[in-house]
Amino acid sequence: MKKLLLTCGLLAMVTRPAGAGDQLKLAVSPAHSFAPALLRIQVRLAPSAENRSLEVIADSARFYRSSEIQLEGDRSPATFNLEMKAVPEGDYRVVGVVRDGAGRQRSIVYQEVTVIGPGSIGG
To answer: Which strands make up the sheet holding 24-29, listed edge to edge?
Structure first.
């Protein structure tokens, strides 16, 4: 039973890149939590002179939050850590997007996250 739970937990934490390759990686912890949740987000990006902004978005049917970080190309840090506090109940897609100086998307990656509300416990 413990192996099954561990395997399910690891699968839930897998990042699903959408064309990012090794350019952009995203890890959100915890993948499952109780509302109001504190989501810890780590974004890693490969240095590139074209990188000008990083946007991190948490989006569900009833809630949206985003943060945008200005980048200095290949002089920017490779890792960014963010926290999103008091995230309410919902099924979220947490997205990381890197854009160039013209605002064009260079890389995108996402992870699914579930925040359980008090009405969801015990049926």
So the answer is: 24-29, 37-45, 79-87
